[in-house]
């Protein structure tokens, strides 16, 4: 696992296809904007874990 520090407005690009940008950071809360092709599913962690436990 890669761990990066990013400030609001900064982003990372994964495989030249997925852009993950920090859009807000307040009081320990973080908002991310994810730009990816439609064929790549994006699932929140708690939903993913629930699906894996079925």
Automatic annotation (TrEMBL):
Q: What is its main location?
A: cytoplasm
Q: Answer yes or no on keyword Protein biosynthesis.
A: no
Source organism (scientific name): Pallidibacillus pasinlerensis
Which compartment or compartments is the protein found in? Cytoplasm
Specify whether Acetylation is a keyword of the entry: no
Which HAMAP family does the protein's record reference? CsrA (MF_00167)
Spell out the subunit comment.
Answer: Homodimer; the beta-strands of each monomer intercalate to form a hydrophobic core, while the alpha-helices form wings that extend away from the core.
Described function: A translational regulator that binds mRNA to regulate translation initiation and/or mRNA stability. Usually binds in the 5'-UTR at or near the Shine-Dalgarno sequence preventing ribosome-binding, thus repressing translation. Its main target seems to be the major flagellin gene, while its function is anatagonized by FliW.
What lineage does UniProt assign to this protein's organism? Answer: Bacteria, Bacillati, Bacillota, Bacilli, Bacillales
- Please report the name of this protein according to its UniProt entry: Translational regulator CsrA
Highest taxon of the lineage: Bacteria
Gene for this protein?
csrA
Into which family does the record put it?
A: Belongs to the CsrA/RsmA family.
**Per its UniProt record, what Pfam families does this chain match?**
CsrA
Q: Which UniProt keywords apply?
A: Bacterial flagellum biogenesis, Cytoplasm, Repressor, RNA-binding, Translation regulation
